[in-house]
Amino acid sequence: MSARKSLRPRPAWVVGLVLICLVAAGAVAMSRGTFAILGGAAGAASTAEETEQPPTAVFVGDSYTAAEGGEGVRWTSLVAQEQGWRELNVGRGGTGWTVAVPADRCRYGTCPTYPEVAHEVVDLAPEIVVVAGGRNDRGNDVAAAAAETFATLREGLPDARIYAVSPFWDSTAYPAHLIAQGRDVREEVRRVGGEYLEVGHPLGGRPDLITQDGIHPNAAGYRALAEAVNEALDR
Questions:
Q1: CA–CA separation, 197 and 187 (whole Å)
Q2: pTM
Q3: Is the pLDDT of residue 143 over 50?
């Protein structure tokens, strides 16, 4: 009797219920599998994003680039932070396109001209180079030195973004010779496919942004320079 009962056909509603359960279970499994794949892909993308390094930017310049007088505030660091760059700073006080500082007066070990520093920059292999300065050159003709600097950078760093910043000045009237210098630098950086950042005179008429030496910016002054450079980069 029990054997015959086991062979008895199941009611239709039982069969239907079993089929519904099987379909539902399969849907849940497929759903879970899909979310696992998406989760894995998202996780991989997130990991890749986290391990991706920001581009390295080397800043070349004088005491303004080295941020003397800024109480630890650097316009270069503020710009790098805003732009998402990793900063390397080779600014050296007293230097310029045509001006070096003798070893016995150089606090940085060596204080060469910008054309000489350009070779050092190439060895660092950055993706970005920012050259700023010129106040120490006074009335010197910087065209040849600028041409050599940017030619060296472009030859050694063919894929790098190269920027030149118009010369900074303190809170006093902007000198005419810096306007002429800026024109020469602009022409030479553009010659190698670089970009000239015209930042104007952010410290002009603002002695409150200058330290007591009358030359170097204070912390607020360097923040003003950073804002001007970032605005020029974002144009």
A1: 12
A2: 0.79
A3: yes
DSSP secondary structure of 22-84: HHHHHHHHHHHHHHHHHHHHHHHHHHHHHHPPPPEEEEE-SHHHHTTTSTT--HHHHHHHHHT
Tell me the per-residue pLDDT of 2-56, one tens digit each, with 9 for 90 and over.
443 444 444 554 444 444 444 444 444 443 333 223 333 444 444 555 568 999 9
Helix 143-156 to helix 176-191 angle, to the nearest 10 degrees? 30
Tokens 């080295």, located at residue: 66
* Helix boundaries (H) for 135-218: 143-156, 176-191
- Amino acid at residue number 235: R
- Helix (H) / strand (E) element for 131: namely strand 128-132
Give the tens place of pLDDT for each residue, 76-118. 999 999 999 999 999 999 999 999 999 999 999 999 999 999 9
- What are the structure tokens assigned to 155, written together? 């030859």
Report how far residue 124's alpha carbon sits from residue 118's, in angstroms, rounded to the nearest whole number: 10
The span from the first CA to the last CA of the chain, in angstroms, equals 92
Confidence (pLDDT) at 42? 44
Among 137, 202, 124, 126, smallest CA distance to 169 is for: 202
CA angle 90, 95, 96 (to 5 degrees): 100
Cβ distance 191 to 149 under 8 Å? no
Distance CA(165)–CA(105), nearest Å, equals 26
